[in-house]
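User: Thanks for the earlier help. One more: PTS EIIB type-3 domain-containing protein. Can you show the sequence and predicted structure together?

Assistant: Of course, both are below.
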Amino acid sequence: MAAAGRKAAKKAKSDLEFKARSDSELGDFLQGVDLLLIAPHLKYMLHDAQKEADQYGVKVAIIPQKVYGALDGAGLVTFANEELNRG
């Protein structure tokens, strides 16, 4: 999913960066991140991830199943932009 997002962001000339990380690395990479996207099958982790992300002022969202299941990079870019621009 991250690779599809990177490819779509590059094609769209977007400055978004997508990086895949395991949940065990969460605290090590949140600093400097604007948005943490969680795969839909990991939504049970949302509460814990949100608590950790709140310490860094990072927004958290679950990737829509339709986008994730289709590895829709363009959809991921659109979703990430919508989440980042949400007030």
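User: Great, one quick takeaway?

Assistant: The chain has a mean pLDDT of 95.
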